[in-house]
């Protein structure tokens, strides 16, 4: 009986500890996610953007910078960095963004392409002309990309 | 068995088959939900091509309370579109009034599986300054006509002005010019019959059967407010009657509140018949799922001898952004006429 109680308590406590660790990790990720920047392919015009222009590009309201057609990239919807970006720049929550793109679907427009990780996004932006994306400043490292916007 | 009975039996079998097809269509569309990468209302990519497919449907129930009741499978449409660089393509085919059943006073049942070309166009955006569209598209006039399908619009019913002043669709050229952040110009040109006449020469899918349409538009967006003015000319194909029209539209959006008004005026080229109509509508979002709507409308149509004002109160529930359950109550200000409308619509 005592062994069973210990096992149950151990399991419950273990679960709680895991949750606390998970919560702390998420908080750390959220804090890190706030230090993001917009990067772009090296061939893009050497111009700093304002937040309004970034918003217009990510909502498909604008497509160009000077003569260059821009292809914005997203991270997966559960990525804390994406959540920070959407909160800071788009000023819309998940449901509002979903509702927005549903209307655009009727108009024949698609949301930005989604990539699975920051590393994939960095490599994609490095290689594909006209692409932009958001990454943590610290992740840029030796990647040949251009920092376009610093919040 | 008499010939009449045979015909009646055959009709009943056909009716059964048609109903079966309708039910099947409704049942199949939500199955897309179970496709791994699919979210309802966002369309589905066709293999690894730039092509996307989607569509929408709407079921309506209308009750004039002291008159007749009707059930309409209003429309089912399929879209196929693509975007690659500066070029994009959109095609939409629609079956309209697929099934119609009127009860009581005038018992009537109709079904139609005619397929119409609603939108087919190619678009080229060379920059953020100008955009060219060629084909058949929603006439970019006012606000309502740009987002006209039941699931996306505010109410099941359309304000009268949106279907009586200008042709809802234009087949030809649309040139959009953005002069600056606050000034946009639109030029529309049509010099052929509607594209849908290729499939239905007598009954093209449009509010007017036209072969000429020339229009200019100006739009002024400023913060939460957007103002639009349009003016144009069109000619009805069969009767060769020409019309001039003017159209004003205003929209204010701030947090949960949206106020929208549109007013249109149409007069034939001989200066005779005049039609003018307008509405003012407020939409208040209790949250993203629940909306309350109030609208007043007026129409003065010399041709139909229709001069009346009425109001509408409505409620919309969206369990998902791509699905709408709507209820609205319309009533004439003279209280001679009233109607309850319910609808269920989905974008997939």
Task: Write a concise keyword list for the protein shown above.
heterodimer, A: alpha/beta, D-Maltodextrin-Binding Protein, domain 2, 2 domains, 5 helices, globular, B: 348 residues, mainly beta, Porin, 2 helices, disordered N terminus
Tell me the distance between the termini of chain A. Answer: 59 Å
The geometry of chain B reads as: globular
The largest pleated sheet of chain B is described as: 16 strands, antiparallel, barrel
Main β-sheet description of chain A: 5 strands, mixed
Helix content of chain A: 40-55%
CATH class of chain B: Mainly Beta
CATH classification, class level of the largest domain in chain A: Alpha Beta
User: Taking Cα atoms only, what radius of gyration of chain A do you get, to the nearest Å?
Assistant: 20 Å
User: What is the name of the CATH topology of the largest domain in chain A?
Assistant: D-Maltodextrin-Binding Protein, domain 2
Gap from first CA to last CA of chain B: 46 Å
Tell me the CATH superfamily of the largest domain in chain A: Periplasmic binding protein-like II
Q: Biggest interface between protein chains, with counts per chain?
A: A-B, 19 and 26 residues
Please identify, by name, the CATH architecture of the largest domain in chain A: 3-Layer(aba) Sandwich
Total number of beta strands of chain B: 18
Word description of this protein:
In chain A, the strands form 2 sheets. Chain A has a 5-stranded mixed sheet, with helices on both faces. In chain A, strands 2-3 form a two-stranded antiparallel ribbon. Chain A is built from 5 helices and 7 strands. With 151 residues, chain A is an alpha/beta fold. The mean pLDDT of chain A is 83. The radius of gyration of chain A is 20 Å and the shape is globular. Chain A folds into 2 domains: 1-33; 35-149, Periplasmic binding protein-like II (D-Maltodextrin-Binding Protein, domain 2, 3-Layer(aba) Sandwich), CATH 3.40.190.10. The longest helix of chain A has 32 residues, at 2-33. With 348 residues, chain B is mainly β. Chain B has a single domain, classed as Porin (Beta Barrel). Chain B has 2 helices and 18 strands. A 16-stranded antiparallel barrel of chain B has the order 2-3-4-6-7-8-9-10-11-12-13-14-15-16-17-18. In chain B, β14 and β15 (290-301) form a beta hairpin. Chain B is globular, with a radius of gyration of 21 Å. The termini of chain B are far apart. Chain A binds chain B through residues 62-64, 67, 69, 95-96, 98-99, 101-103, 105-111, and chain B through 39, 41-43, 52, 54, 56, 79, 81, 83, 85-86, 88-90, 123, 125, 127-128, 147, 149, 152, 288, 321-322, 347.
């Amino acid at each position: 009986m005592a062994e069973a109680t210990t096992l149950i308590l151990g399991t419950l406590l273990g679960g709680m500890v895991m949750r606390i660790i998970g919560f702390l990790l998420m908080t750390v990720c959220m804090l890190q996610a706030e230090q993001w920047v917009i990067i772009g392919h090296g061939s893009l015009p050497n111009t700093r953007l304002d937040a309004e222009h970034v918003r217009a590009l990510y909502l498909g309201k604008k497509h160009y910078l000077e003569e260059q057609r821009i292809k914005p990239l997203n991270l997966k919807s559960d990525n804390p960095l994406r959540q920070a970006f959407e909160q800071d720049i788009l000023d819309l929550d998940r449901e509002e963004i979903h509702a927005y793109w549903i209307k655009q679907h009727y108009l024949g427009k698609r949301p930005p392409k989604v990539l699975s990780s920051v590393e994939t996004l960095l490599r994609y932006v490095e290689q594909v002309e006209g692409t932009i994306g958001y990454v943590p400043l610290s992740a840029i490292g030796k990647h040949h990309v251009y920092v376009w916007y610093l919040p | 068995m008499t010939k009449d009975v045979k015909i009646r039996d055959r009709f009943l079998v056909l009716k059964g088959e048609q109903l079966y097809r309708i039910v099947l269509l409704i049942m199949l569309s939500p199955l897309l939900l179970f496709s791994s990468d699919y979210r309802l209302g966002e369309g589905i990519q066709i293999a690894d091509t730039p092509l996307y497919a989607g569509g929408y449907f709407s079921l309506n129930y209308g009750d004039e309370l002291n008159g007749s009741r009707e059930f309409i499978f209003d429309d089912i449409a399929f879209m196929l579109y693509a975007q690659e660089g500066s070029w994009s393509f959109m095609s939409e085919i629609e079956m309209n009034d697929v099934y119609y059943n009127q009860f009581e006073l005038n018992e009537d049942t109709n079904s139609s599986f005619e397929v119409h070309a609603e939108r087919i166009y190619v678009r080229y955006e060379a920059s953020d300054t100008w955009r060219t569209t060629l084909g058949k598209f929603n006439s970019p006039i006012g606000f309502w006509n740009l987002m006209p399908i039941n699931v996306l619009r505010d109410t099941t019913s359309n304000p009268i002005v949106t279907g009586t002043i200008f042709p809802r669709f234009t087949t030809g050229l649309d040139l959009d010019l953005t002069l600056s952040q606050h000034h946009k110009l639109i030029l529309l040109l049509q010099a052929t019959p509607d594209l849908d006449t290729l499939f239905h020469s007598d009954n093209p899918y449009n509010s007017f059967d036209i072969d000429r349409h020339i229009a200019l538009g100006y739009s002024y967006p400023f913060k939460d407010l957007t103002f639009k003015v349009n003016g144009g000319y069109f000619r009805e194909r069969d009767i060769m009657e020409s019309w001039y029209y003017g159209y004003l539209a205003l929209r204010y959006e701030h947090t949960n509140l949206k106020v929208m008004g549109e007013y249109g005026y149409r007069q034939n080229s001989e200066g005779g018949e005049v039609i003018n109509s307008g509405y003012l509508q407020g939409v208040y979002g209790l949250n993203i799922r629940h909306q309350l709507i109030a609208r007043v409308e007026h129409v003065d149509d010399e041709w139909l001898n229709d001069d009346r004002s009425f109001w509408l109160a409505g409620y919309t529930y969206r369990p998902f952004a791509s699905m709408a359950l709507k209820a609205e109550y319309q009533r004439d200000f003279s209280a001679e006429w009233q109607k309850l409308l319910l609808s269920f619509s989905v974008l997939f």
